[in-house]
Write a structure and sequence with these properties.
There is one protein chain. The chain is an alpha/beta fold and about 290 residues long. The chain has 2 domains: about 120 residues, Rossmann fold (3-Layer(aba) Sandwich); about 130 residues, 3-Layer(aba) Sandwich (Rossmann fold). About 40% of the residues lie in helices and about 20% in strands. The protein starts with 8 loop residues before the first strand and ends in a 15-residue tail after the last strand.
């Protein structure tokens, strides 16, 4: 059955700098997946890009007041996140992507399993000093990945270090340079998105080091940026379009008053390309 407002729109607010949205492929593919699923049922996505979470909450209040959307997709749940409470207050149905929040329906990603797979790939190659350039530490999925990496590193008796970035090209280049300037630089680096990884790759090449001869790289979320890089980046691959379709299906069931089961994306898999190999000096027999 149709909801009480009947606007046919589903709201999605992205609180991130527009310059990142234009260069980071993940959200464009994610939104395309949602839109494809909704369009088949005469619905569409109302997208709004804002600078911060305060502006995001203001957008929800405006949407509720003007009855512009039937439901909301909430992305990037964070520590002490005030958005779910506001949406409950406004009686706006919500589907959360990623780590669930209290009382909200969620479409989840297996960040723990995926991080363990990324670390295992590097450990199997012989790496013993592994770094990660993460996204913002306030995000729940960042914390889940960090905890998973440190636990897996302890299990494998390897050294792991995490430094916090912001998904930008600038962070990828700067933090990569800082890691490699250390007394004992890592022999492998995992990046939390493709843009930071490509910037890190360029920074390493500019420093005169070789990839993967001196340092191996893994990027999170496969994209054309990773495939077209030189050398092509090894990635953690998620079918982002299908992720969006799962979210769209959950939203449709929610606004139609149907039961909405918790859904999980498939655990991301390692797509080994040209930026991961055994550390320099470690050779394996054929």
């Amino acid at each position: 059955m149709d909801d009480a407002w009947g606007t046919s729109a589903v709201g999605l607010v992205l609180a991130r700098p527009p310059r990142l949205l234009g260069t980071e492929p993940f959200f464009m593919e994610f939104i395309a997946g949602i839109e494809e699923r909704l369009a088949a049922h005469g619905r569409s996505v109302l997208l709004h890009v804002v600078a911060d979470q305060a502006a995001e909450i203001a957008a929800y209040r405006r949407w509720a007041r003007q009855r512009l959307v039937d439901a909301v997709v909430l992305v990037n749940p964070s520590v002490d996140d005030g958005r779910p409470a506001v949406l409950r207050e406004l009686r706006l149905p919500v589907v959360v992507t990623g780590e669930p929040t209290r009382g909200a329906l969620a479409v989840r990603r297996d960040d723990v399993g995926s991080m363990r797979a990324a670390l295992a790939h590097l450990v199997d190659l012989g790496h013993r000093r592994i770094a990660r350039i993460s996204g913002p530490g306030t995000l729940l999925h960042t914390r889940a990945r960090t905890a998973a990496m440190l636990a897996a590193a302890a299990d494998a008796a390897v050294e792991a270090v995490v430094v916090e970035g912001d998904y930008s090209e600038e962070a990828g280049a700067k933090l990569t340079a800082e890691l490699l300037a250390g007394v004992e630089p890592p022999t492998a680096i995992i990046y939390d998105n493709d843009l930071m990884a490509v910037a890190g790759l360029l920074a390493i090449k500019e420093s005169g080091r070789r990839v993967p001869g001196d340092v191996s790289l893994i990027a999170w979320d496969d994209s054309s940026l990773c495939r077209l890089a030189s050398p092509a980046l090894t990635t953690m691959s998620l079918d982002v379009h299908t992720f969006g379709e799962l979210v769209g299906e959950s939203v449709l069931r929610l606004v139609n008053g149907e039961p909405v089961p918790e859904r999980w994306c498939a655990t991301e898999t390692v797509v080994a390309r040209e930026t991961t190999a055994a550390p320099s000096g470690l050779h394996r027999s054929a």
